Amino acid sequence: MAVQWQPRCSLRSPRAPLLTPSSSFPASPVSMPLLLHMAKGRSGLSCRGRRLVVRSSSGAGSGSLESGWQRWWRLPEKGLGTSDVSLSDVLWPSAGAFAAMALLGRLDQVVASRGLSFTIAPLGAVCAVLFTNPNAPAAQKYNVFVAQIGCAAFGVLALAIFGPGWLARGAALAASMAFMIATGTTHPPAASLPILFIDGAKFHHLNLWYALFPGAVGCVFLCLIQEAPAIHDSWCRNGAGV
C-alpha cells in the first residue's frame, strides 16, 4: 500500500511541502494521522487543500504490509510438516535433555543438605540451546561459560550495590547484555542468572561463588552429556585402529 498527497490549491507558505505529488512511500493506517499532521505543518495547507490518495502497489514493491507481517511471523525452515526433520532429530535432543535433567536432579539429592540446587531454570534453557542447535553461536562452549560466569557475577554485584528490587534487576540485566555484546559471547540463557540470584534468597549466601555454581558447574555436566556420543565414537574409532 502506498500513500500519495496531491495538492488542490496553491501553497500559502514559502516552504516546500514535505510530501510532493511525486513522493510516495509505504504507510500504514496507524501512521496516516501523523503524515497528515506533518504535511499540514510543512506546507501551510489546510486539510481541505489536499486530498489523500491510497492505492495498492504491484510488482516488485507490492505487499509492504504483507512483507512486514512476514517479518514478524516468519515460518521455521525446519519443523513438523517439512521433509527436513527426521525421527532422530526429535528423539536425540529430547533424550539428551531428559538425561541432563535426570543427572542434575540426582546431584540435587547430594547437595540438598547444604541448601543448594542444580535444577535451576536457566539450565533448562541451556539444554534447549545445546541439544536442539549445537552449531549455533549461543551453543559454543566458550560463549556458554564466559557468559554464564560474567552474567552471574553481575547479579551478585548489582544486589550488593542496589539491594533487592527493580533497580538491581535492571542494572544487572543491562550490564549482562553489554558484557555479552562487548565480549562477543552472546548466550541468552545466561541473562536470566542475575535475575535468579537477586530474587532467589537461597542463593545469597553463595556471594561470588554464584558465578561458578550452579550455572557454570551445571553447564559442565550438560556439555559432557551433549558431547557423550562424539566421545564414544572417538573411543570406538581409536580402539578399532589399535
How would you describe the overall organization of this protein?
The chain is mainly α and 242 residues long. The protein has helices at residues 32-43, 64-72, 87-111, 121-132, 141-162, 166-183, 193-199, 215-241; strands spanning 2-7, 25-26, 50-55. Strands 2-1-3 form a 3-stranded antiparallel β-sheet, with no helix packed on it. Helix 4 (121-132) runs parallel beside helix 8 (215-241) and helix 5 packs antiparallel against helix 6 (166-183). The termini are far apart. Mean pLDDT is 77; it is low at 1-25, 42-49 and 56-61.
Helical residues, percent? 40-55%
User: Helical stretch count?
Assistant: 8
Q: Structural class, from helix and strand content?
A: mainly alpha
Average pLDDT metric? 77
Low-confidence stretches: 1-25, 42-49, 56-61
- Number of E-state strands: 3
Strand content: 5-15%
Largest sheet data: 3 strands, antiparallel
Order of helices and strands: EEHEHHHHHHH
* Shape annotation: globular
If you compute it from the alpha carbons, what radius of gyration comes out, rounded to the nearest whole angstrom?
A: 28 Å
How are the strands ordered across the major sheet?
2-1-3
Terminal-residue CA separation = 69 Å
Pfam families: TM_HPP (PF04982)
Protein name: HPP transmembrane region domain-containing protein
Keywords: Membrane, Transmembrane, Transmembrane helix
Domain HPP transmembrane region: 84-225
